[in-house]
Amino acid sequence: MASQKNTTKKEGISSQSMGILQRPHITEKAAVLAEENFYVFEIESTANKIEVKKAIEEYFKVDVENVNIVNLPKKKIQKGKIVGSKGGCKKAIVKVKKGQKIDIIEK
Q1: Are 90 and 46 in contact (CB under 8 A)?
Q2: Could you tell me the CA-to-CA distances from 48 to 85, 100, 101 in Å, in that order?
């Protein structure tokens, strides 16, 4: 039996790289960074820099220069006697080569 690659039929993107990128992180700060070829994405909590770089290059068809990862911790929330927590997330700040661009809204 031949081994079967785990890819989608539309664009040849592996489902593993689709699972790493959860959503773009769209804020005012991210919009300012996008002007300087930095893009911010929320990623899976187990992802590392190498996996994020491969996923971005494969999905958006751009060349990635640098990847920085930020872990945001959970925050405690208290309303009266009820104590809970606001979930943290893991973000990747990706620098794309000069002259290339990622259209986040279109994808």
Answers
A1: no
A2: 25, 23, 22
Residues of the domain holding 61: 15-96
The pLDDT of residue 15 is 67
Q: Give residue 6's pLDDT band: very low, low, confident or very high (50, 70, 90).
A: very low
Which tokens is 74 given? 């959970």
53 in Cβ contact with 65 (< 8 Å): no
- Residue carrying the six token digits 């491969």: 54
Asked if 67 and 20 touch (Cβ cutoff 8 Å), the reply is no
Using CA atoms, how far apart are residues 78 and 1, in angstroms rounded to an integer?
56
Q: Which two tokens stand for residue 45?
A: 């909590």
Is residue 66 one of the residues assigned to a domain?
A: yes
Any domain includes 64: yes
Residue 48 covered by a domain: yes
